[in-house]
Amino acid sequence: MAESPRKMTSLKVAAAWIFVAIPLGWGVYQSVVKSLPLFRAVTPVAGTGADRPQSPRDVQ
């Protein structure tokens, strides 16, 4: 028994959305993961002098 044209069209539309949504979701996920370091606060390590600005006199 053949499926109705409407049901077949719905199946094709669903398959097309899955075909597009999976790579799109993966790309969004990768973009978020790779951009997270841009939004993290950098904390200096205590005792290394990284917590104070350097001046030319400090470099001697």
Indicate the low-confidence ranges by residue numbers: none
The radius of gyration computed from the alpha-carbon positions, rounded to a whole number of angstroms, is 27 Å
Note the main sheet: none
Morphology call: rod-shaped
Oligomer: single chain
Order of helices and strands: H
- Fraction of residues in helix: 55-70%
Q: Which structural class do the helices and strands define?
A: mainly alpha
Q: What share of the residues does DSSP label as strand, in percent? A: under 5%
State the separation between the terminal residues, measured CA to CA: 88 Å
- The DSSP helix count reads 1
Beta strands, count = 0
Average predicted confidence as pLDDT? 82
Structure description:
With 60 residues, the protein is mainly alpha-helical. It has one helix and no strands. The protein has one helix at 5-39. It is rod-shaped. The N and C termini lie far apart (88 Å).
Helices and strands, with pairings:
Blueprint: H1 5-39
Quick structural overview:
This is Oxalate:formate antiporter. It comes from Singulisphaera sp. Ch08. With 60 residues, the protein is mostly helical.
Summary tags:
single chain, 60 residues, mainly alpha
